[in-house]
Amino acid sequence: MRKNYFLIGVFALATITFAACSSEDKLGEERSDDNGNTEVIEGEPTWAKFTFKLGKDGVVARATGDTHEGTTTEKNIKNLRAYIFNESGSFEAKTDNATVDEHGTEHTAVLKLTSGKKKVYVVANMQDDWITSTTTTAQFEAVTLTHCTKAGRIAHTKGVETAVAVSRVGNFDKISGNGNAATNGFLMANVLKATEYTLYPGISAEDCSKPAYDSSAEMKKNNHLEVFISRAAAKLQATYVNADALILKDSESNTLGKLLTPTFTVRNLPVQSYIFLHNHVDGFLTPFYIMTNTSSTFADFAKYYDEVNEPNLDLKASADGEAIESIYLPENSNQTPVRGNTTYVLVKGVFAPAANVMINAVEVKNDGGNLSIENKLDGTDYTTGGKDVPPYFIVPEWENQIYTAPADFSGNLANYGLGMILKTYLNKAGKQKWLNAVDEGSAVDEGDIENSVSVYYGSSFSTSEGIYSVVTIKKYSHPKNALPGYKESIEGTIRIFQYTGGTCYYRVNVEDNMDGKTEANNLFYSVMRNRFYNVNISKITSIGYPDDEDVTVDPTDPINQKTYMQAHITVEPWTKVEQDAELGM
User: Fold this and answer.
1) Is the Cβ–Cβ distance between 264 and 313 less than 8 Å?
2) Following DSSP, what letter does each residue of 424-493 receive, concatenated?
3) Read out DSSP for 2-32?
4) Concatenated DSSP letters for 482-534?
């Protein structure tokens, strides 16, 4: 038998003062060298008892009284298998006969093994036994899962374990590791950094199974080891603080409108994750950690991230007593976080303008030769939800001013709005004397008398600029002493969003400030397994994007959290992540 010695230092030995077992029960041996260190011989017969517990990131979850530690379905362990490898990475033994305590929270197994360093991998609720005697640790750690991430099919209703809620889990085989999570449980595994254990030789089955020990050191010396496992998925819910959170107000606290019928889903979900949590010096790794970067294209991102979910979970007030729905997510981290690879919540709703807010005409007023504009208003309050919201557009840099056409207008909204945009632009630019100068016949002079120039302005739609429709403001000028004909020049461009029925979309990036991470840390925009993310909308800062793809625009763009829902996150066991957010563009 090969004997491979390794030393347990004097410092560690000082904390271990209990003998492994009585001499007559020893199956192997320990030896001491001349320096007082204990040599543990690898390969000697011994017994070990493993206690498997559902914990937090591979460690014990502290008691907080938190209601999000998991529902019965989320904590239930239907089956559990432990796979033990020796120090060289070769498979040594496995067990799938773990017993369960009276509370259903601790699972134990007693095995006859050999002494030495071991790696223990634990998988709970994996339906199929996919390990063989030739599987190595490297192969084991490389196992990945694909995901079923369609929002409505993997929804869970918080705190209400009804048949309807459980059935919505649907085909959960990609995250749960089996075809029916409600019946077979949610996939759980341990953390790679916490998998190494030392088994001492000569420990009997009786000693490793004692009901109580004087210290944790004695437990370890008697090969009674605790292994903590965690769910291989995260959980997220989105809520809003109260009704005021869905109301958009201007800088003077006047109500501009309200977001009606809000729903949510989660996007940019990776299509693969590891079965075990791969810890890294900076946090953790996922299969696509280095696969996308700032030079990637939409096609590149589509290989690794899901972009097809539709928002269909109701966004509810966080304190209204109604059942709040959640989504289970695969973990996600990236070497270079950008808009195309970070997981985010997509909120969809109808932004309904308040009364006396929607502008449907701009009228030029003449007060003794001084021109000014007056906005004509629709006068309808759409926030009650009793009337369909008509098409409208906004100019984002004009502080959410909303433009539409009269109710009896049946033409093209965009073309109708050109006149309103032109006049508003001229007024904001301090060019009031040209408010009526919209063609050659109404041109107005500028400059001095000897060098006067006849000027008028026009507007037209140009090609789109990214996510915006663009209106070009043109200046037409003709010096009085020049040849006939007006010279055209570009005065400026106005970017607008056009909405159909008020439907709009918002984005909030999922954040994880675990261990004090800040936005400067590349893992700040991450999803970690076994954590509960609560995205709580606190304020709307603008009308959202008119199309859902607008929230990503160019996937290589850097993340600018100021343009989305602003968030604050704290982390608690399940683990729960609190996130307050403001809705905006």
Assistant:
1) yes
2) HHHHHTT-GGGTT--SGGG-EEES-STT-EEEEEEEEE---BTTBEEEEEEEEEEETTS-SSPEEEEEEE
3) ---EEEE-HHHHHT--S-SS-GGG-SS-EEE
4) S-SSPEEEEEEEEEEEEESTTEEEEEEE----GGG--TTSTTSS-B-TT-EEE
Nearest-angstrom CA–CA distance, 513 and 523: 9
* Both tokens assigned to 147: 């995901």
Mean pLDDT by 10-residue block, N- to C-terminus, for the chain (585 residues)? 36 29 38 49 91 62 42 74 86 76 70 92 74 76 68 35 35 45 72 84 94 92 90 83 90 92 87 82 82 86 74 80 74 90 91 94 92 93 92 87 84 84 95 94 86 92 81 92 87 91 91 80 87 86 85 80 47 52 61
- State residue 278's pLDDT score: 84
- Helix H segments across 192-347? 216-221, 298-302
Q: How many residues does the structure list for the chain?
A: 585
Instruction: With beta carbons less than 8 A apart as the criterion, state whether 380 and 359 touch.
Output: no
pLDDT score recorded for residue 24: 35
Cα(417)–Cα(405) distance, integer angstroms: 7
Neighbours of 174 (CB within 10 A): 20
Least Cα distance to 203 among 227, 224, 232, 182 occurs for 224
Cα 153 versus chain centre, distance: 18
d(CA 477, CA 370): 22
Contact 439, 456 (CB under 8 A): yes
Instruction: Give the Cα separation of 54 and 57 in Å (integer).
Output: 9
User: Which tokens go with 320?
Assistant: 């209204």
- Whose tokens are 């800062």? That residue is 541
Q: Which helix (H) or strand (E) holds 172?
A: none
What CA–CA distance (Å, rounded) separates 114 from 181? 35
Residue 64 corresponds to which amino acid?
T
Q: What is the largest CA-CA distance in the chain?
A: 119
pLDDT on residue 13: 26
Whole-angstrom Cα distance, residue 392 to residue 451?
Answer: 43
φ, ψ for residue 83, nearest 5 deg: -120, 125
Q: State which H helix or E strand residue 296 sits in.
A: none
What contacts 341, CB < 8 A, 6 or more positions away?
268, 288, 292, 296, 301, 304, 305, 332, 334, 555
